[in-house]
Task: structure prediction
Amino acid sequence: MAERLGRSQPEVSRLAKLAREEFRGTTRLGRLVREHRTAIRRAVREAGASNARVFGSVARGEDDEQSDVDILVDIPDDFTLFDLGDLTVRVGDILGVPVDVVPTRGLKGKIRSTALNEAATL
Result:
C-alpha cells in the first residue's frame, strides 16, 4: 500500500492509526461536535457521503470564538455541489454554529496532507 501511495510504510501506518482514532475534543466546539457526533454521522450517511472526520482548529484544540467546524467527508462521483451545500446546512443546523463540509478528493497538495494528518474520526 505504501508503495502505491508513494509514502513510506511508517507514514502510512501513522495515518491509518490516526484515521481509526475517534475524536476526543475538549474545547467548546470540540465538546459540541462530540455531543452531536451520532447525528452528524447520520446526516453524512443519509446525504450519500461517508467517513466523516473533524479537522482544522477544532481537531487541534485551537478553536476560538471565531472558529467554524471543519468536517472532512468522502463523497461518491455523483455527489453534486447542491448535495454538498445541503449537507453543510444540515450539519450546521445540528451544531448551531458555522460549518465547512469539505470533500476529501477536493483537497490537494499540502492542504490535503495537513487535513488528513490532523483529521479525527467522528
Notes: The mean pLDDT is 89. The longest strand covers residues 50-55. The chain has seven helices and four strands. Residues 2-121 form a domain with the Beta Polymerase; domain 2 fold (CATH 3.30.460.10).
